[in-house]
Design a protein that fits this description.
single chain, alpha+beta, Ribosomal Protein L22, Chain A, five-stranded antiparallel β-sheet, four-stranded antiparallel β-sheet, 11 strands, about 30% helix, about 35% strand
């Protein structure tokens, strides 16, 4: 079964990415779900969603966990029962998790699509992107920024947090593969390291909360 990529972020933090290619029956082998998650999966009308859901359980196994180690809070944010941090994402045929013993983490995978040009004004000051060489570059950059803000939203997990007003991703060049971001919300500031990578027309962004930030 294809784990697509494993990234060692630090000695205590790892990213696992799966390319979902198997049929549902194959993905279901050796996967035990909690009653809560079985109910969630039973309610999924789309086979692609069920396959993604099951593939995430295989990623958990890669990290040494099962579905029974996972709990969700009222915001829908996943937590590991041993106190380690986790974030989960899926987009089309890619799924991913990030697990850390030491840092609050968030992850997001997005397909690069021109639709993002139409919604960009809702999450970032679009004027900043006019200098880029071509539309493809703008789409790539906007997808990284959107993914970063999604990953940060997953860490922060507070109602009312606005992508446009409260989350600022510092500018970056594609070759940097990283940047930093700041969340300013209700008088509080927090800072995050952002890393991004691109593969097969998709963008993966993961964020770690900076110590003391």
């Amino acid at each position: 079964m294809p784990i697509y990529k494993t990234i060692t972020v630090s000695p205590t933090t790892k990213v696992y990415i799966w390319k979902v290619m198997e049929p549902e029956a194959q993905l279901g082998i050796n996967v035990q779900l909690t009653p809560h998650c079985q109910n969630r999966m039973d309610g999924m009308k789309s086979e692609d969603h069920r396959r993604a859901f099951l593939s995430i359980r295989h990623l958990l196994a890669e990290a040494g966990y099962t579905d029974f180690d996972l709990a969700y809070d009222d915001f829908g944010k996943p937590h590991l029962k041993d106190g380690n941090y986790i974030s989960i994402t899926h987009s089309h045929n890619f799924t991913g998790i990030i697990v850390s013993e030491t840092d609050e983490v968030g992850i997001d995978i997005e397909m690069q699509r021109d639709k993002i040009l139409r919604i960009a004004h809702k999450f970032t000051p679009i004027e900043e992107y006019r200098t880029l060489a071509n539309t493809e570059a703008i789409i790539r950059k906007l997808t990284i920024v959107w993914g970063a803000k999604e990953a940060l939203y997953k860490i922060y997990a507070q109602q009312g947090l606005s992508f446009l007003k409260h989350i600022n991703v510092m500018d970056f060049a594609f070759e940097d593969t990283r940047t930093v971001a700041e969340i300013t919300y209700k008088g509080q500031k927090s800072h995050y390291e952002i890393t991004f990578l691109e593969f097969e027309g998709f963008t993966c962004v993961y964020a770690l909360k900076m110590m003391g930030g």
